Every structure is written in C-alpha cells, then in structure tokens.
Amino acid sequence: MDKETQDKLKKAAGIEAAQLIRDGMVAGLGTGSTVKFLVDELGRRTREEGLKFTGVTTSRRTQEQAEGYGIKIIDIDDADHIDITIDGADEVDKDFNGIKGGGAALLWEKIVAVNSNKIVWIVDRSKVVDTIGAFPLPVEVIPFGAGHVIAQFKKRGYKPVLRLDAQGEPVRTDEKNYIVDLHLGRIENPKELAGDLITTVGVVEHGLFLNMVDTVIVGDPAGPRVMQNPDKA
Ligand SMILES: O=C[C@H](O)[C@H](O)[C@H](O)COP(=O)(O)O
Questions:
Q1: Does the interface predicted TM-score (ipTM) exceed 0.95?
Q2: pLDDT at residue 233 in the model
Q3: Side-chain half-sphere of 212: how many Cα atoms within 13 Å?
Q4: Among the atoms of ligand 1, which is closest to the Cα of residue 100?
Q5: How does pLDDT run across 7-18, given as a tens digit for each residue?
Q6: On the CB side of 203, how many CA atoms lie within 13 Å of its CA?
Q7: Ligand 1 surroundings by CB, under 6 angstroms
Q8: In a domain, 232, yes or no
Q9: Distance CA 195, CA 80 (A)
Q10: Which of 42, 50, 161, 231 is the most buried (most CB within 10 A)?
Q11: Is residue 131 part of a domain?
C-alpha cells in the first residue's frame, strides 16, 4: 500500500474514532501518525462544535498537539478514571494481540491503557495480520547496562537492534530510556515471549499488548470497519 493511500485510511479511522468522545469524558490520547489525525479531528470538534472533554496523553508530542487546539490535558495521576483511550498500533491479529511502540511511546501508552475503562485502536488495514512479528517488536530498556540486555537478547535469537535517530544517537523515550527493536519475523507464542521480556532485568516494558484492546477501527478503502473483541463484549 502506498503512503498516500495508507494516510487516507489512517485519517478515516481517526475521524471515525473521534465520534466516540463526548462532552465530559476523560479520554486517553495515544501517539503516532494515526492518532495525529484523531487529535486534529478532536481539535476541530472542540473549536467548531464546542466539544469539552479532558485528555490524558501518552507522549509529550500528543500533549503539545492537543494543547495547541485548546484541549484540556491533565496528568494521569490527577485522573480518577479514564473513560476511553484511543491509540494507534503497529500490528494486530485476529486474537486482538498487538504490537505497539513504533513511535517509542509504548510505556506511557501501556500505563494509560491499563487504567482505561475501554481501549480503542485505530489502524489502516495493512496492520491487520494473521501472525504478529513482522513489525520489529519494540522493547524499552534502561540505558545503564543496555549492552548486556542486548547481548542476552542476541543469545536468545531475538535479533535485537538498538533504535537510533537520524544523527545516529540512541532514540530516547519520554522517560529517557532506549528502545531495542526485536526482528522476530513471527511471534508464535506472544504470551511466553512477553513473560520472558518482562522478567529480564533492565527491561522496563515491551510493546506486546495482548488481548487488551476492546475495539479496533480499521481504515479500509470501503470505509472504516469495526473489529469487536469478543472477550471484551
Ligand atoms: O509508540 C507509538 C505507538 O505505539 C503508535 O501508536 C504506533 O506505533 C502506531 O503508529 P502510527 O499510527 O504512526 O502507525
């Protein structure tokens, strides 16, 4: 799929999902290029329709964009609940297992997600896959001793690559940690892998979001379609 088509589908999914936000809600706002379209639409609704809701953001980037539209953003610890979180994803399978973190925001995204009453993902249709893992799995790692964590991943056959920015420096997350991308190809047993990663000392969090999402809105050329997680119905 070319980038122009993909962006169109992302935008359509973002606009569709923006309808889920209503006056008075506390809404988690994800991160990434798809969420950017969502926030643009929420900004439009705020300005043109007088929509009034409170946001909890999953990255500094999203916070800046939302505040630029005059959307009220509060700290997650000042939110006594989050009604709904809308976020992007890098891949999702039919069991509603997904990979996130392509934009290095997975840690805050997971914290916001687990504290939300409902989770919605917005993706273009190229991200709906049979088996996750073609997209390199992001893992957030503490910089101290990161070389040893990477060496362990190598030994386990995870094909780790430290993510670098355009200047060749390690990418830093909003928590100033590193991202190590695991080039796994296919993840046959995501639960086992998640357990292995999270018990590795030096790992803060990983981008496997397993059966957490309630609803996925898929941007499709025929129009956005909804995948409802039967386990969350
Ligand atoms: O860290 C970033 C997030 O998990 C994004 O939601 C994910 O990478 C999807 O991003 P995009 O909408 O840009 O494809």
A1: yes
A2: 78
A3: 24
A4: 4
A5: 999 999 999 999
A6: 24
A7: 30-34, 87-90, 100-106, 109
A8: no
A9: 29
A10: 42
A11: yes
Centre of ligand 1 to C-alpha 121, Å, is: 10
What is the domain extent for residue 137? 1-221
**For the chain, how big is the Rg over CA atoms in Å?**
17
Residue 229 forms part of a structural domain? no
Helix axes 33-49, 60-68, angle to 10 degrees: 20
Whether the model clears a pTM of 0.80, i.e. scores above it, the answer is yes
Nearest one of 82, 109, 84, 112 to 98, comparing CA atoms: 109
- List CB contacts of 100: < 8 A, sequence separation 6 or more: 87, 88, 89, 90, 106, 109, 110, 138, 207, 209
How many independent structural domains does the chain possess? 1
Task: Identify whether 227 is part of a domain.
Answer: no
Is residue 160 within 8 A of residue 94, CB to CB? The reply is no
Q: How far apart, in whole angstroms, are the C-alpha atoms of residue 45 and residue 62?
A: 17
Structure tokens at 214: 């309630």
